Amino acid sequence: MSLKFVHQIIIFAGIAISLIFAAWCFTDPSVSGDTRFLVAGIASIFAALALVAYEIYFLKKTRRLILG
Length: 68
Prior knowledge:
Number of strands: 0
Distance between the termini: 11 Å
Structural class: mainly alpha
Mean pLDDT: 91
Low-confidence stretches: none
Radius of gyration: 16 Å
Helix content: over 70%
């Protein structure tokens, strides 16, 4: 298992965790109407988008490298 593959798995896990947290912030009935959870959900979505952008950047950068 290469370091590049492990890096991709960790980034993917971060994206998944961010989106799951955002879904929880938006759908949990016990925190309905609390603006702190709305802000946290929106911030989590932005974090997931930033991780997607980083993943694209990382894949483009490592495509040129010879990793063996």
